[in-house]
Amino acid sequence: MANASGFFSPSVPSLRGKIKPSIGVIGSGIWSTQRISKRVVCSGTIEGSEKISSSQSQLPRLVSQGCKLVGCGSALPSLQISNDDLAKIVDTSDEWISVRTGIRNRRVITGKDSLITLSAEAASKALQMAGVDPDDLDLVLMCTSTPEDLFGSAPQVQKALGCKTNPLAYDITAACSGFVLGLVSAACHIRGGGFKNVLVIGADTLSRYVDWTDRGTCILFGDAAGAVVVQACDIEDDGLFSFDVNSDGEGGRHLNASIKDNEVDHAVGSNGSVLDFPPKRHANFSCIHMNGKEVFRFAVRCVPQSIESALEKAGLTGSSIDWLLLHQANQRIIDAVATRLEVPPERIISNLANYGNTSAASIPLALDEAVRSGKVKSGHTIATAGFGAGLTWGSAIIRWG
């Protein structure tokens, strides 16, 4: 029984309950369908392989386990900056910002807050909900574009959590798409590497890279951290049905924070040496540069296509998902994508008004609030997508719990 919007009521058995998905890796994503045997072979096609007998060829790896999201958490800086606060330092107003973006407030890192402390707090909450001890973690994935160390912040988060077993920890840098890529990476480690518990953190402190005199960008960004625990499970209980991930370096000129051009003099000295060698010790990054119109066009074109591709791989339709959870960049983008996918407003998860664009943190932050408020319940299917600098974009069809 479907409601008027074409979505199944959460209290009524839906298509999700009838699907016992098998998982395989194909192309840019994992497909899931009840028409395929539960033992799925993941292997490439090798030229000439038809000439090799089965006894001679190497046996392909079999996908023997799935993965599911079992815990979430989030953390925010204490300092809140409203649109009215911004109006005191740039030529703008609450109405101007809210009409164009949907944002009214954002949190900004200050004082004793840091990317590490926010990430550790969000991670601890996710571990507590999942009932997983830090020492039982096999991997920590830190999805951020604003690490506090050139070489990455994941090991410092691992240290802050008190992990005594020294699980692998590394950073994923993909801006606002980072968290979705973290989910995909977690699934690959679990399915292909035998990992059991993977912590995926999305966290960014973009306020440090904002030009607070530029009303076109300073109104958009905030700081936050969010985390989920992805855990191995029986293939029948798999909670990551499919994904679709992409990038386009050509579009990077529309959204970036590149190394500043120091107008290096490449003149050559009399002995043939380059005068500007050795390089300067510190390279500074510019503030965030964004062509808002081009980014908007990119998002409303590519994100729906990516979600539709992921749904097709999962053997699902838009009407069979419970929630649409997009990267919280701009309410107009969220609404445009939802319209394209025919998702009604009551099935959209959005907290953009309160926090602005928190980059890699936006999806896990919104998910955590939706879960803890009781909006998202165990068994609900979510279509989620991240998109941003790179340009990168990706989507995943997941089941909570």
Automatic annotation (TrEMBL):
Q: Which InterPro entries match?
A: ACP_syn_III_C, ACP_syn_III_N, FabH, Thiolase-like
Enzyme Commission code(s) on record: 2.3.1.180
Keywords carried by this UniProt record: Fatty acid biosynthesis, Fatty acid metabolism, Lipid biosynthesis, Lipid metabolism, Transferase
> Matching Pfam families, A to Z?
ACP_syn_III, ACP_syn_III_C
Offer one example of a GO biological process linked to this entry. Answer: fatty acid biosynthetic process
Q: Name one GO cellular component term.
A: chloroplast
Instruction: Return one GO MF term.
Output: 3-oxoacyl-[acyl-carrier-protein] synthase activity
Which residue ranges does the record assign to the Beta-ketoacyl-[acyl-carrier-protein] synthase III C-terminal domain?
311-400
Q: Which reaction does it catalyse?
A: malonyl-[ACP] + acetyl-CoA + H(+) = 3-oxobutanoyl-[ACP] + CO2 + CoA
Task: Write out the coiled-coil annotation as residue ranges.
Answer: none
Q: In which pathway does it act?
A: Lipid metabolism; fatty acid biosynthesis
Give every Beta-ketoacyl-[acyl-carrier-protein] synthase III N-terminal domain span.
170-249
Which NCBIfam families does this chain map to? Answer: fabH, PRK09352.1
What is the recorded function of this protein according to its Swiss-Prot or TrEMBL entry? Catalyzes the condensation reaction of fatty acid synthesis by the addition to an acyl acceptor of two carbons from malonyl-ACP. KAS III catalyzes the first condensation reaction which initiates fatty acid synthesis and may therefore play a role in governing the total rate of fatty acid production. Possesses both acetoacetyl-ACP synthase and acetyl transacylase activities.
Assigned protein family: Belongs to the thiolase-like superfamily. FabH family.
- The protein's name is beta-ketoacyl-[acyl-carrier-protein] synthase III
